[in-house]
Design goal:
Shape: elongated
CATH class of the largest domain: Alpha Beta
Radius of gyration: 24 Å
Distance between the termini: 15 Å
Number of strands: 19
CATH architecture of the largest domain: 3-Layer(aba) Sandwich
Helix content: 25-40%
CATH topology of the largest domain: Rossmann fold
Oligomer: single chain
Bound molecules: zinc ion
Strand content: 15-25%
Number of helices: 11
């Protein structure tokens, strides 16, 4: 698996516009004149988020659009001038960034031509050597879709090559540029709502769900219904009888079984082609490499300890994080019953910025078990079972899925924060789901430093994670 992410949508918009223009000798892109249509080139400079596992995870941090004057036509294809290439390679060398090359074809589906392969072979070897371990990428854009591949030198000094699993653009719309179409009868009734592009994105992107209890089970079931095909479920817990009032993927026969396995079974019943991986819960000390190469993390946890860890990982890996919380507050009169959904994305405020993480709760969660026991004796984090009810989980989960669908379809930008209030008040009886205005990132934030924590490690550790 591997990812190329445009965390600034303007970077991709610039490339898309540049590649979409008629190029070369002023030819149009219609079929009759394709022979004289020029190809256009653009480059993205990338920061390496991770280069372990099965493929690199790269973030685009700068782009350069190649002028037509630097593009010339050879006997069998289009070439870039040495002057342009030198300047691109030198910039990468001095910044420590990686390089991904983009060019367009006038007809899809996008794929490298024989000429492209001939030109790539020496370029890749040269760049991998020059850039000392930073992965190299190349992509073809045609008919509104992208084909993108990466190369890197592996531990044994051999060149590895693979396709980017996803190439994503995170803006008002969440786009998956290399999504593969998913047209199935099962999904026919929702296609008019989502559109084929969003349905393809749903089928291609990878989602991690942390916490598979009352909230996470409904969410996971919803993901399977919507056509998500690549899901990771993270939880350690076994199903208990007291979960059955809200864990929609479990029944009596599942008591004692892992929540992840029980939920995976339900998801496979909905979609036999779905890939569901499972892993243990988020912990204080673990690195959680399984969360480094996903396109979206959805948090369904009931404690700010793991919530804080997910927030840190999402910030570091530039991964959007959709956090769902539900709860009851019996200390107020009338007691409060509700929840909230928050979507954080790179360049925006994180959960710490938003003041949504309780430092005392995080500190208690991080303590060793014997000290947690001591805390309980003193009345902290007593772990008494909070009241929970299926319709509250369902409201919060479906509000979150609604925002996710809006984001993927581009129908409208998603809400960054939704409050769910079930009890309401006497002045406004009835269930309320309200978007809340959210301030920008906090420049002094200890987690994201105002959305720019990554700048501190501008120079990637070459060849390492
Ligand atoms: Zn080409
Ligand atoms: Zn922050």
């Amino acid at each position: 698996m591997s990812t190329l992410k445009f965390t600034d949508p303007e970077h991709w918009k610039g490339i898309e516009r540049h590649l979409g223009q008629p190029g070369g000798s002023g030819a149009s892109s219609d079929a009759s004149s394709s022979a004289s249509s020029g190809e256009r080139f653009a480059f993205a400079y990338t920061r390496t988020i991770s280069n372990a596992g099965t493929g690199p995870v790269l973030e685009v941090v700068e782009t350069v659009l190649v002028d037509e004057l630097d593009t010339t036509r050879g006997v069998d294809g289009w070439y870039l001038s040495d002057r342009a290439l030198d300047s691109i390679h030198n910039h990468a060398l001095t910044t420590g960034y990686g390089i991904v090359e983009f060019h367009n074809h006038h007809h899809g589906p996008p794929a490298f031509s024989a000429t492209d392969e001939d030109a790539l072979a020496p370029t890749v070897v040269y760049c991998l050597e020059l850039l000392g371990g930073t992965p190299y990428g190349a992509a073809v854009w045609a008919d509104g879709a992208l084909h993108a591949e990466w190369w890197r030198v592996n531990r044994h000094g051999r060149v590895e090559r693979g396709q980017f699993t996803t190439v994503t653009v995170l803006g008002d719309q969440f786009r998956v540029l290399n999504a593969r179409p998913a047209a199935e009868e099962r999904l026919a009734r929702q296609l008019p709502l989502l559109g084929t592009r969003a349905q393809a994105a749903i089928a291609t992107m990878r989602v991690a769900v942390v916490g598979v209890g009352g909230t996470g089970s409904q969410l996971a079931q919803g993901l399977a219904c919507l056509g998500f095909r690549n899901v990771l479920l993270m939880d350690d817990d076994l199903v208990e009888i007291s979960n059955l009032n809200r864990m929609v993927t479990a029944g009596y026969a599942d008591v004692g079984q892992p929540k992840t396995a029980v939920t995976r079974k339900r998801m496979r019943a909905i979609d036999p082609l779905i890939n569901v991986a499972t892993a243990g819960a988020v912990t204080v000390a673990a690195e959680h490499p399984e969360l480094e190469d996903v396109d979206l993390i959805i948090g369904c946890v009931d404690n700010d300890g793991p919530r804080n860890r997910i927030n840190q990982i999402a910030t570091r890996t530039r991964t959007p994080y959709l956090d769902i919380a539900t709860g009851v507050d019996e200390t107020v009169e009338p007691f409060a019953l509700g929840g909230r959904v928050i979507l954080t994305a790179p360049h925006g405020p994180c959960l710490t910025c938003l003041g949504e993480l309780d430092a005392a709760e995080i500190a208690r969660w991080a303590k060793p078990p014997d000290q947690q026991q001591l805390d309980r004796l003193h009345g902290y984090g007593t772990g008494t079972a909070n009241p929970s009810v299926v319709y509250l989980n369902g409201l919060a989960v479906n509000a979150a899925l609604t925002e996710l669908a809006a984001w993927l379809s581009g129908a409208r930008p998603p809400a960054q924060w939704l409050d769910v209030d079930v009890i309401g008040d006497l002045g406004r009886p009835g269930t309320q789901i309200d978007p809340r205005e959210v301030a920008g990132p906090n420049p002094g934030c200890i987690t994201c430093a105002g959305g720019h924590r990554w700048r501190e490690s501008l120079h990637p550790v070459l060849g390492a994670r």
